[in-house]
Specification:
The protein has 260 residues and is α/β, with parallel strands linked by helices. It has 2 domains: 85 residues, Hypothetical PUA domain-like, domain 1 (Ribosomal Protein L25, Chain P, Beta Barrel); 163 residues, Alpha/beta knot. Helices cover 28% and strands 24% of the residues. It is built from 7 helices and 14 strands.
């Protein structure tokens, strides 16, 4: 059976010996017979770097209309158009999982953006806590990395990225229907899977900064009726590692991994 494999450059292999098929996010309507003009940087990547030419296949998605197979047309070194041919996958509804996290330094932010996209979150909220190391957040760069992660791993939606918000305001604005899972090394439950046994989306995963939550922040979190504190095991993790671990745990316990 052929399998789709991501090759690390935003392209997909059918594992059948053929060339990798590039995969792109486009902000345009998708449908049979439509044409989509590509952005200049996408053209450069396809034509000048990957040496694609007219007639070569490209996969595209826009977060609304599923994934489509198209063919390159009207190709020059600076411009190209895709002729859309067929729908490969219909648009799914993502699990309603939000990632809220304390911003990190730039290199680790890029990693978080890409991994959050790969883990299938629907929304991302930077939250400023007392021990947050970096208060700077480049939303444009972060979103570009979210898109890159989605292109590379086969996700069919782009997670929404909110502006940074103080933790106090974030908690005050939290919808009453949202379950809040926050990682706490002092959590009583030894088994995080047991702690999430009754959790269901809509759900928010909150990861604190490298220095952890302050005592008053932890008290405020624990006071929330819908909050579930979870431990991520006996080892100390970097915040970016904790984000991936927590999202994997949640997707396995109550997210879209359950249908696999």
């Amino acid at each position: 059976m052929k399998q789709r494999e991501e090759n690390g450059s935003g392209s997909i292999s059918d594992n059948g010996g053929g060339r990798h098929i590039p995969r792109l996010f486009v902000d345009a309507p998708l449908g049979e017979g439509l044409q989509v003009g590509l952005e200049r940087d996408q053209v450069h990547r396809l034509v000048n770097v990957m040496r694609r030419k007219a007639g070569d296949p490209v996969l595209v998605f826009n977060g609304r209309d599923g994934e489509w197979k198209g063919e390159l047309a009207q190709v020059t070194r600076k411009a190209a158009v895709l002729d859309l041919k067929s729908l490969l996958r219909p648009q799914p509804v993502p699990a309603d999982i939000t990632l809220a996290f304390a911003p990190l330094k730039h290199a680790r932010l890029d990693y978080v953006a890409q991994k959050a996209a790969e883990m299938g979150v629907r929304r991302i909220v930077p939250v400023i806590t007392r021990h947050t190391v970096s208060g700077k957040f480049n939303a444009e760069r972060f979103l570009a990395n979210v898109i890159e992660g989605a292109e590379q791993c086969g996700v069919l939606w782009i997670a929404g990225v909110d502006k940074p918000v103080p933790l106090e305001r974030f908690l005050a604005d939290l919808d009453a229907s949202q379950t809040l899972v926050f990682c706490d090394e002092a959590a009583e439950a030894a088994n995080p899977v047991d702690a999430l046994a009754d959790a269901r989306p809509p759900l928010t995963v909150l990861i604190g900064p490298e220095g952890g939550f302050s005592s008053d922040e932890r008290e405020a979190l624990r006071a929330l009726e819908a909050a579930i504190p979870v431990s991520l095991g006996p080892r100390i993790m970097r915040a970016d590692t904790a984000i991936v671990a927590a999202l994997a745990l949640v997707q396995c316990a109550c997210g879209d991994w359950q249908g696999l």
